[in-house]
Amino acid sequence: MTNFLSREAAQDYFLLTIRSHEYGIIDVSIVLERLAALSSLGNSAHGATVFANEILHDHDWTKGDNDWFDDRSGRETSELSENHHGRSADRQLDDESDDRIHLAIAVGGINWIFHPFDDDWFPSVPHGHKRSGRPTDKLDPYLGWVYDKSKQTGRLKRKDIITLWNNEGFRVTASRSIDYYLENHPHVSRWRVRNPRKLPLRR
């Protein structure tokens, strides 16, 4: 019987790897080695493993490719930083990042992160995680409610929610989140509308 990492462990491993590179702790070659390990240890049906495999494929990574980085003159370092973190070193925190990994965006003056492969349905699919402050804070982008765990603690202004849904990067991330959830959790019926893939209209 093959033992895989749990869905939660794979997601934590994936996000820790990406964040470590984002903060300059590890370079791109280590990122790809870690993602290759996740590809081997993670269940291929789980979101973190799916996105790890996409990144490895984009960077022509093969198992045992330890000298992959040596003859590319650092080109992949900037590509991973720009394409997969969605920002180079001189761009701001609230810029849009690659929707396959996460989208970091400011809404109502607060930095939120949206993960397109999040298996948690509460309070909505998608939902945002607060970048700083209480780690349990979540944003419902449909109604603007902010939750600390299951308790409503505030609400963003309507104009901020409209601005969010007018953002093309967010709409792409929202679509991927919904597609991922429908594919991996087809039994869930907590959707607010009959066709969850129909996003709110731009205004």
Would you kindly provide a written description of the structure presented here, covering whatever features stand out?
With 203 residues, the protein is of the alpha+beta class. It is 38% helix and 12% strand. Strands 1-2-3-4-5-6 form a six-stranded antiparallel sheet, with helices on one face. Strand 4 and strand 5 form a beta hairpin. The longest helix is centred in the C-terminal third of the chain and has 17 residues. About 18% of the residues have low confidence.
Q: Give the termini separation.
A: 52 Å
Q: Strand share of the residues?
A: 5-15%
Query: How many separate helices?
Result: 6
Name the strands of the widest sheet in spatial order. 1-2-3-4-5-6
Reading the helices and strands in chain order gives HHHHEEEEEEHH
Please give the largest β-sheet.
Answer: 6 strands, antiparallel
Q: Give me the count of strands.
A: 6
Which stretches are poorly predicted, pLDDT < 50 over at least 5 residues? Answer: 65-100
Indicate the radius of gyration in whole angstroms: 18 Å
Residue-averaged pLDDT: 78
Could you give the topology of this structure?
Elements: H1 7-22, H2 28-41, H3 47-58, H4 75-84, E1 103-107, E2 110-114, E3 128-130, E4 137-139, E5 145-148, E6 151-155, H5 158-166, H6 168-184
Antiparallel strand pairs: 1-2, 2-3, 3-4, 4-5, 5-6
